[in-house]
Each structure stands twice: as C-alpha cells, then as structure tokens.
Amino acid sequence: MSSHQAPSAPPDVVDDEGPRDLVSRAITWLIGLVAVVVLVVVASAFLPRWWAQRIGDQVNGSMVGGIGLGLFYGFVFVALPLLVLRLAFRRGRSWRFRLWMLAIALLLATPNLLTLSIVVGSGNAAHAGDRILDVEGPGFRYATVGGALAAAALFLWIEHLVRSRRRTRQRADRLDAELKQRREVTPSPEPPSPSTGS
C-alpha cells in the first residue's frame, strides 16, 4: 500500500508583486501630479476673473463697501486658518490628522488666496480681475491686506499671552514644589520649653 503525498510547492519561488506594486504606485502618483498641474492651470485661467466679478457684485463700486468687505475677508479668512493650524500642530496629533487639518486650513484661506492670485498673478485672468476690482471693488485689495495683518497680529498676541501664562503657571508650580521640598527637609523649630521659676 503506497502512500500518496501531495505535491509540495516548488522551492525558491520569486515573488514579483513588490516591483509591480511599486510601479503601480509611481503611475498613480504621476497621474495625480498631472491632474493637479492641469487643475492649477485651468484655475489660474478662470478663477481670478470669476472671483473679481463676485467681489464686484458685492461691492458694486462703493469705496466704503470695498474697504469693509476687504477687512472682513482679510481678517476672518486668516484668523480661521491660523486657528485650525494651531489645533493641528498641538502635541500628540498624528500626521494624518495634521494633513487633514492643513487641507481644511487651505480651504478656509481660499478667499484670500484668490485675491492674492489677482494681485500677484501675471496671466490674462489676473489682469482682468485687477481691472474689475479697480472699477467695481475699489479699496478691497488693500483692505484685505490690512484685515489679514490685523488677524495675524491678534493671533500672535493671543499666542504670546497663552504662552506667557503657561510659563508663569509652570514657574509658580515649580516654586511651590521647591518650597514644599524645603519644608520637608528642614525640621520645624521646637517651641521653647517653659522656664521653671525657683
């Protein structure tokens, strides 16, 4: 009665899934990079003019309206991203959480980034947006800068106050701990014994 053994797997089988996986990842990253470049090119050719028209519709040629709206956009859409970044880069946060919060901060900063693309852009859409803001949104660009600087200054001031308060509290806790340790080491003086009269 002969024993029938199942055929064993051939030795030294080369696993080529690693290089294939690496190639597929490289292709995916390359496609993603091309898509981002295409989106940036399309956005730079369209968004500055579109954003200037939206601001022009809101301001409607009023200098007071342009300054007020610029201060609002500049302040709010710098303060919110800074607050999100402050929460993202606290200790103990994972890198995945930080990347998500960075994406949220960029999304919140979009209005100011669009205005910046008009100010510093060199394309036709940026120049068209510049002309639109000159006529329909006077004062908006400079007021946006002022609002953004005010938000950044306020954020830095609050951050300085928080850090100073934290340092003061840590210094007070350290002094309390040293005082407690000295009291434990130094024996308290014994009260003088009452003198007996003769």
Descriptive notes:
With 198 residues, the chain is mainly alpha-helical. The protein has one domain. It contains 6 helices and no strands. The chain has helices at residues 17-59, 63-88, 95-108, 110-120, 124-136, 140-185. Helix 1 packs parallel to helix 5 (124-136) and helix 2 packs parallel to helix 6 (140-185).
Question: Which terms summarize this structure?
Answer:
about 200 residues; about 0% strand
Q: Quick summary of this structure?
A:
With 198 residues, the protein is mostly helical. It has one domain (31-179).
Largest sheet: none
List low-pLDDT spans.
none
Q: Per the principal axes of the C-alpha atoms, what is the gross shape?
A: flat
- Radius of gyration over alpha carbons? 33 Å
The amount of beta strand, in percent, is under 5%
DSSP helix count? Answer: 6
Helix content: over 70%
Order of helices and strands: HHHHHH
**Total beta strands:** 0
Q: How are the SSEs ordered, and which strands pair?
A:
Layout: H1 17-59, H2 63-88, H3 95-108, H4 110-120, H5 124-136, H6 140-185
Helix pairs in contact: 1-4, 1-5, 2-3, 2-6, 4-5
